Every structure is written in C-alpha cells, then in structure tokens.
Please model this.
Amino acid sequence: MNAKRTDLIATIVIDLIVASVVGILFFLLAYILTAGLPHVSWSFLTGATDAFSGAGGIGVQLFNSFYLLVLTMLISVPISLGAGIYLAEYAKDNWRTSLIRSAIEVLSSLPSVVVGLFGFLLFVVKFKIGFSVISGAIALTFFNLPLLTRNIEESLSAVSRSQREAGLSLGLSKWKTELGIILPVALPGIVTGIVLSAGRVFGEAAALIYTAGQSAPVTNFADWNPMDPASPLNPFRPAETLAVHIWKVNTEGLASNAAALSAAASAVLIIAVLLFNLGARLLGTYLYRRVTASK
Amino acid sequence: MLKQYSFEETAVQTFDDKTSLAMKTENMQVFYGENHAMFDANLAFPKNQITALIGASGSGKSTYLRSLNRMNDGIATVTGKIWYHGVNINEPGVNIYEIRRHIGMVFQRPNPFAKSIRENIVYALRANGLKKKAELEERIEQSLKGAALWDEVKDNLDKSALSLSGGQQQRLCIARSIAMAPDVLLLDEPCSALDPISTVKVEETLLELQKKYTIIIVTHNMQQASRISSQCAFFHLGHIMEYAPTGTMFSNPQIPVTQDYIAGSFG
Model:
C-alpha cells in the first residue's frame, strides 16, 4: 500500500470517529431538549414544588443549585488557587510533593457517592449540621478541589519559564512575579477551568443527596437575611438541587406527569451546563485580551 | 575531535588600582549538582565599557553571566566572591532583589511580559514603590529612548508588547532593564534570536548605553564582540583562558586555544 493511500484511509477513519462522537453528543442534546423543552414554562421555572408528590415547578431547586454552586466556589477556588500555586511554583521535586500529588489524584478518583456519604456522616450526623446547603457545599468542595487544583497548577506551569526569569531579573520577589506576571497570563486558563468545574458541580447529584438533602422547603424570596430559617440565603437549611430533584422525581415521584417533569428539568439542567461551557470560552478569551492588552 | 588544551596556560589581564571597576569575581566556582561547570573565574569589569564573553557552546559563559546577579540561585551552587561596590554579593545575607535592581539582565529570547508596552516598563517600578505618574511617564520615555525604541512605539504605548517584532521586543526588554536605573547590564546572547537588521539596532543601542552603564554581554558571534566590546574574555570548557582588550584579543591572541578559536578551527 502506498503512503498516499494509507494516509487517505487513516484520515477517513479518524473523521468517522470524530463524526460519531459529535453525532452522539448532538443526538443526546436533541433528544433531551425535544423531550423536555415543550414542558418548560415560566411557571415551571419559578413555581414551587409539591413536597409530597414532587409535582409543580422547580423555582426553589434552580435557586438552590446556583446558591450551592456559589458557596462551593467561594470555598474551593481560594484553596485550590493556593494549592495550585504551591505545586506549580514552590513545591520542590521530592517525596513530599509526590505524596501530595498522589493524594490529589486519589481524591479526584473518589466516587462522588462516597464523598456524599462521607459528608453525610461527618457534617450531617457527627457535627449535627443536618441536611443543609453548607454540608453540600463542603462535600462538593472535596469533589471539586483536586480537579481545580490540577487545572490551576497546569495553567501556571504552562507559562514560559522566561517570564519568571524576566520578573526575577527586575528584582521582583518570587511571590510578586507569580501574582503580577504569571497569574495574569494563566488567568484565562484558570477561569475556563473554574467555569467548567462549575458546570460539573451544577450537575452533581450523588454527593448532594445525603448532604444538601432531598427536600426543598418553601423559602420566602422576600427575606434576604441569611440568619432567618425561611431565607433562601440561610446556609443551614436543606436544599434540594435541580440534579437531585431529577433523580428524586424519577425514583420516588408520585406525580402523574413525573416523566414530563424530569424531562423538563433535565432540559433546563443541560441548558445551564451548556451556558457554563459557552461562558467559559467567552470569558477566557475576553480575559486573555484584557490582561495582555491585545485586541 | 576536540583538541586538548592545557588549562594551566592562560592569559587573563588584571587592572591596576587606577582603573575604576564596576564588578569583579574572585575564584568563582559553579556547580550543577555534582557537575563542576565553572573553574576559578577571576574577571574584573571596567566601568562604562562593554565586555564581551565569548566561547563555544557549553564553555560556561552564560553560567558565569547568570551568577553575577544571582540568577543561578536555586539552580546551581556558586562559590567564591563576587565584588560589587566593595561588597561581596555572593553571601547568603545579601538582598538578592536589591542586587538585581542594580544589575539588570536581558535574556537570549526576548521575554516581554504579556502586558502593554507601558506596563512592561512600569510594572517593576511600581512594585518597587515608584508611584508618581509624572515620574513613571518620564521613566517610560527615557528608557524607551535609551533603547532606541521610543520613535517606533510612542503612539502605541498601550498596545500589547507581544505585538512587537522580535527586535523591538528585545529592545523593549533592554528598556525595561534600564528603566530600573541599574548600573550594570548583563546581556545573555541578546541578538541570537534576531535578524541582522534588528541586531545592528541593538548593537547601536548598546554602544550608546555604555556611556551610562557597564555592559557585560555573552555572544556567540565573534564579529559582534569585535564590533562593540572594549574588553573580551574567552571561555573554554568552564575555564577563562584569555582576557584582554578586544583589539589585542582578535589581532594578537596570546595562547594556542584562543588562537585556534579565533581562527575558526573549533567551536
């Protein structure tokens, strides 16, 4: 067989593989959206759920998902930023660093349901916090930390060594070089990673069933005092998220239109995650232009 | 096959007390782990002159240069003395950040920050506590003029430094260094990634800069060394073999290894 022919066959095979991957994705998206979107309405997006049957809208769940996401990110981004900077810049190449790296790897391979059960035993039961937003956020942090740390470390390491030398040669300290020169260059990659992990956190169910709980008590959206039990901002109230709601409607929902409900909620979830992905790209490009002053 | 030369036979000039020196090294050794990369380096650099460090790849000239402003910290072990203004700066207690502000460095590949031209120059100044806007603007203009870049970029100071050509980027790096008002400027093969026209511009810039700064430049290019330097040191396998005024070095090298190198028999 001549080189040209081999090349042609290889190209066709690779094209087919790519096409099938894209095809599967589009089939899934189209299926979920066509099944769910007809049932999505304004009252569905904002309405309250009937606690017994699971019927009704997903307003509270949608809010819970976002609130939990924000809390999770508030906890996990600073920690993983510190860990990522440490691993990329300060960690020496020795047994301790490789121990940290393997620990991160093990943490990232823990099944989310195990993380959820751990959170349940430690926070919900042992610390008596109960099913709550905060328990869920901490469990999700465990689940999120390793991937974020890895992403931040990789983004920082990808910045050329010569940039570091330039900073140091001007008499800047290592920390100042890191913060003012390396971090801005790495920022688009870091932000992309954060937004993508936000999408993952948004869709997570297993880790939340036992930590944030499966009930969405009616909250008073006029009450923004985080200390009030009925306030949506109260981090100690149970908070069923959208992904958990989908699971619950499908397993124990008593509503007559359970199938339509879960299809609609899935469509909303998928759209939110897609928006996160799109947002990650746009934000990454925007930030890169912004920090590097390139138009 | 590389000819064997005796490391005992060297011809390194020294200066009398009347010559004012910018810096000097005494018995400097550099080790990369177990690997002994620089042997007994004794060089002195007269003020306001360009000194060229030449030699084949791996001869230790970059290693030597990077030790002068302690850029080898954490990479290599440097022993011996590095005298700068009567202070041995190769001591653990020395403030290396302060030292690097006085002894600037320009690298082989242009490495401007991924920021605007203006920010490239003022970032480190601001970090060192210079906040007055007028003074910063003044420094921008002075340093860009010093690096012969001002006319090309004065209308685009907010443009990304990465949009400049390679030669412009390298001159920006020089401007960035001299904006710190150093008194010694170390250049590590600053023209090796540039085209001939940009090279000429950088060389003209350096010739102009030696009036204010002491310049030590590592170069691969012997023509460049003869064009711009007043003193020239020849490195071979981690040893400084010969150090002499550039004219003497190129017209009348003292020892066989320099003679062969300059004649082009190796390297």
